[in-house]
Amino acid sequence: MSSGPLRKLTRTSRLSSFELPPGLIEQTLDNVKRGDVLLRFVLCLAGAVILWLMVGGWKPPFPYRTEQVPLRNIIPRVDFRQLDQPATDRQREEARKQTPAIFQHQNTKFPQIRGELNNLLQLIATAETFDKLPEGLWEKFSLPPEMQMATPTPQEAVESFNRFREKLVPEKSFQEFEKAIQEAFAELERDGVLETSEKTKIPSRQDEIILKTPNVPQVVTVAEVLQQRARDKLLKRLQESPAIGTEAAQRLFHWLGPQIVGTLTYDDAATRAAQEKAALDVPPVYRQYKANDQERALALGGKPIGPEEFQLLREEYAAMVNSLTWEQKLYRSLANFGMFFALYTLSGFYIFFRERSLLTDFRRFVTLLALFIVAVGLCHLAATNDMRAEMVPLLVFGMTVGIAYHQELALLLTATLTLIVTFTLGQGLPEYVILSSAAATSILLLGRIRTRRKLIYVGAAAGLVAFFTSIGVGVLNHQPPSLGLLITGGKNALFTLIACFIVSGMLPFIEQVFSVLTDLSLLELGDPSHPLLQQLVQRAPGTYNHSINVAAIAEAAAEAIGCRGLLVRVGAYFHDIGKMIKPQYFVENQGREGNKHETLNPAMSTLVIIAHVKDGADLARQHHLPQPVIDFIQQHHGTTLVEFFFRRASQQSENDPDAADVDESSFRYPGPKPQTKEIGILMLADAAESASRTLVDPTPARLEGLVHDLAMKRLLDGQFDECGLTLRELASVEESLVKSLTAVFHGRVKYQDQRTA
Fold first, then answer.
1. E strand or H helix at 104, and its extent?
2. Are the CB atoms for 680 and 657 separated by under 8 Å?
């Protein structure tokens, strides 16, 4: 059936059917729509918010520090006041001195004295005659010697007794007499009596005290409650009472006078508490400062900022922050987010084009982002004290990234971190130069860490750079050469050395968190006494010998193209440890027992051969080998074909018409393919070392052809697609392997008596 004539396409239709690839903006939008990319954007935004909170991105930074020398006078930006602590302390001390002392009043003593006196008076009132008085009773009420002209006669004594007794009888007179005594004692019972020994505890300028009574405390004059004054007032009140009279009052006072003792006791705790309360009630004294007041500079230009000036600047800064409006805080927050976005973009482009694995590997991405945020927080925390040690976490971050990744990435991220720290701390270009120079020196000198002293040498060299940079920048910033400038340079040098000591102690944790190996750890792993290597020697000596040879030639090849030869050597030591599980199934370990594979079909033999990769990885994990070494074990065969058994299976299939077709994928290693140049080099070295043993006459030309064929076979098989090896590097690796194998199979001079075995 005819399909009819073909329709001729016009030029317009041909052009409309042609679609150009999407542009950069379209690609970016398409990527953002992906869930994993969107998650990373959200994490970056969350990191920016955390940074904003940690650095106080809504307010200006506080840029001053002690011993800093400002170029010009610093004047107030806002009105504020500063607490005048000396003046406040003086006024509060004065309030303490003016607070009356507090005394406890034992007001139960005088009622006891009155009760005892009442009993004596009862005895006198009940005695009808002088002779019936108890012995010695009347002598207690005798007049003082100064009031008597001579010793009274018995008759005079009887007469004086009768006059005194008349005031007590009848009962009504006794009650009036007793009431008069109570009234005379009223003031003493209310105010108490102060002895001279207690008066010495009262401050000299105070003429009043406070009585602490169960009821309301009362204030009394010191002079009125002194012991002698209290006795005089008691005698006067007794004499003025009509019910008692002058003579009876004198007789009563002869007994009462010695009984009038102190009832007021100084209360030290209560007095101190009252003094402190009075001091706290005194309002603080402030010094007032006006905005833009040129006459009252907060710090003078050309002079170091001392502790007093620093505190004054702190209070002015706090007042300035409190005066900010929400619009000002918003503008500053947006500016900080703009800086974060610009730095994110700069770093992101570099990572995208040079370290894309950091973006694709979610764990590594989150770890690096968290490390950056923590470093910013630690820098701000270290900058809050007078030491201003923000250099320590900055250098620790830079060296950690340099160890975990590459020096170029460490330099970029450290420069970014330095920029954020400098701006958010309110520092300028001088501080940035000092921090960045010390960080760059430590990162560039880091290199490969093969000894424990390496980091100390790096710290010493970076410390010298920090010291001289601090002095040079200070002089260029118009700071006169002084002891303070030398001290600042010395502190920066010390901080640099401290940072290197911290990194040295954290090295095992850095390696574990970032799954990296320093040369120092590689040297420890490459020790032949490692338990796995010892077991390999005992169970599979042929495999051990093979591993040692591969390590030697692979290390040289790695060094030839600038890769980590030591890492390749250690990886080669362990790459075949899985063969010790079934060593007799591998040709290098087979002796007189014969080949075990003769009794197995090709598929089963392939499973046994391939299993050594998984067995080796399991052994490595059981012995806590680091992940980079495990990667060598898992990837050194990639997805290559087990050719010998594949060909045998193919031949058996061809000879058996009923047999199924041989599936090539069943005879390939599970992979993955080599992910680094070092593992790619090991793959080729492993194959070359094994294949070279099959050559009858391993001349240099044959070795060169063998190595090239093996390299081309793996290249065309796509085994090097994911490791980053270039064709130029592959050629260099081939050349190095040929040289190493030629040296291994070098010829020897045959002696006359030597016979062929």
1. strand 101-105
2. no
> Cα(192)–Cα(222) distance, rounded to whole angstroms?
11
Using alpha carbons, select from 621, 415, 405 the residue that is nearest to residue 513: 405
Q: Does the CA dihedral 550-551-555-558 come out positive or negative?
A: positive
CA atoms within 13 A on the CB side of 79: 2
Give the span between the Cα atoms of 346 and 353, in whole angstroms.
11
Backbone angles phi, psi at 211, to 5 degrees: -95, 125
Q: Give the whole-angstrom CA distance, residue 98 versus residue 275.
A: 8
The percent of residues above 70 in pLDDT, for the chain, comes to: 91
Binned at pLDDT 50, 70 and 90, residue 50 comes out as very high
Contacts of 467 (CB under 8 A, 6+ apart): 489, 490, 492, 493
Distance CA 425, CA 393 (A): 14
Peptide bond into 626 cis (omega under 30): no
CA distance 75 to 291: 8
Copy the structure tokens of residue 550. 């591969």
User: How many Å apart are CA 280 and CA 8, to the nearest integer?
Assistant: 103
Closest CA to 85 of 284, 275, 276, 308: 284
For tokens 């020697």, name the residue.
Answer: 537
> Which residues is 265 bridged to in the sheet?
104
Beta bridge partners of 212: 104
Give 705-731 as a 3 state SS string.
HHHHHHHHHHHHCCCCCCCCCCHHHHH
With a cut of 60, say whether residue 548 has pLDDT above it: yes
Residue 624 β-bridge partners: none
Q: Which two tokens stand for residue 740?
A: 């190493």
Who's near 550: CB < 8 A, 6+ residues apart?
Answer: 572, 575, 682, 685, 686, 689
Please answer whether residues 316 and 289 qualify as being in contact, where contact means their C-beta atoms are separated by less than 8 angstroms: yes
* Nearest alpha carbon to residue 94 among 240, 253, 278: 278
Query: What's the average model confidence in pLDDT over 225-238?
Result: 87
Sheet order of strands, 101-105 included: 218-221, 208-212, 101-105, 264-266
Neighbours of 146 (CB within 10 A): 5
Kindly state the helix (H) or strand (E) to which residue 210 belongs, with its residue range: strand 208-212
Could you give the C-alpha distances from 342 to 27, 48, 210, 372, 380, in angstroms and in order? 20, 11, 72, 16, 21
Calculate mean pLDDT across residues 526-544: 90
Alpha-carbon span 169 to 174, nearest angstrom: 6
Amino acid at 622: Q
State which H helix or E strand residue 120 sits in: helix 109-126
Identify the pLDDT of residue 354: 86
The amino acid occupying position 271 is T
Please give the span between the terminal C-alpha atoms of the chain, in angstroms, as a whole number.
82
pLDDT at 335: 92
pLDDT of the residue at 305: 83
Tokens of 511: 């390696």
**Interacting residues of 420 by C-beta distance below 8 A, sequence separation 6+:** 51, 55, 339, 340, 343, 376
Q: Structure tokens of 306?
A: 């001392």
Distant-in-sequence, close-in-space partners of 601: CB < 8 Å, separation ≥ 6: 649, 652
Indicate the Cα dihedral angle 32, 35, 40, 44, nearest 10°.
Answer: 70
- Residue 350 contacts residue 66 (beta carbons within 8 Å): no
pTM, to two decimals: 0.71
Q: What is the 3-state secondary structure (H, E, C) of 373-439?
A: HHHHHHHHHHCCCCCCCCHHHHHHHHHHHHHHCCHHHHHHHHHHHHHHHHHHCCCCHHHHHHHHHHH
Q: Which residue has the higher pLDDT, 156 or 270?
A: 270
Q: What is the CA radius of gyration of the chain?
A: 51
Residue 69's pLDDT band (cuts 50, 70, 90): confident
**d(C-alpha 12, C-alpha 397), whole Å:** 59
